[in-house]
Write a structure and sequence with these properties.
This protein is α/β, with parallel strands linked by helices. The chain contains eight helices and six strands, in the order E-H-E-H-H-E-H-E-H-E-H-E-H-H. It starts with 10 loop residues before the first strand and ends with a helix.
């Protein structure tokens, strides 16, 4: 198993805390939402399981409507820990038998970072979509990405992840999904 090679049979999409009260404070929050929706469409089209978390929804609100409306069939978990690796999330990941986790979410240097760190510790291969994560400041965003890369995560982007999973052009799936990034 090549740690830099993504394939749909081994992948899971995990969306961390893209919530109503967080988005207004985020630098690049709308970009993260847009690219997360591209990855959700890709996951649905490729039968890749989707897991979403909400950090303390009573205080931070629910998952933003622009994403929530696309999460039909996804597993959702509330959490109070910064890491998204709750008992429920880890049970779902283990049950799926899939070991390659694509990550999107908020904030890059807190909840995303701690989730990635825990997944790596538990021998998952992690692919962070850098254009689908964000923080309040550019410095925190960059620091979070740097820390995750140093720990062994693959820091990538939505388009690279999409085309890596597609593998080839000229298919109906390629035509449908490539429109998402234009």
């Amino acid at each position: 198993m090549d740690k830099y090679y993504l394939n749909r049979e081994e992948a899971v999409l995990v969306i961390i805390d893209i919530q109503e009260r967080l988005v207004p404070a985020m630098d690049r929050g709308e970009r993260a939402i847009r690219n997360t929706n591209v990855l959700i469409s890709m996951a649905k089209d490729m039968d890749i399981p989707i897991i979403a978390t909400e950090q303390y929804p009573k205080g931070l609100g629910s998952i933003v409507p622009q994403i929530e409306e696309n999460l039909e069939g996804a597993r959702k978990f509330e959490k109070n820990t910064f890491s998204g690796c709750t008992e429920g999330v880890m049970a779902d990941l283990h049950e799926s038998g899939r070991k390659k986790v694509i990550i999107t979410g908020m904030e890059t240097h807190v909840c995303v970072f701690q989730t990635v760190r825990e997944l790596l510790k538990q021998d998952y291969q992690v692919f962070v979509a850098a254009d689908a994560v964000c923080s309040r400041t550019e410095e925190n965003y960059n620091n979070g990405l740097s820390l995750m890369r140093e720990m062994g995560a693959v820091v990538s982007n939505t388009e690279t992840i999409l085309f890596d999973l597609l593998k080839e052009s000229g298919t109906p799936q390629f035509k449908a999904l490539s429109k998402l990034i234009k």
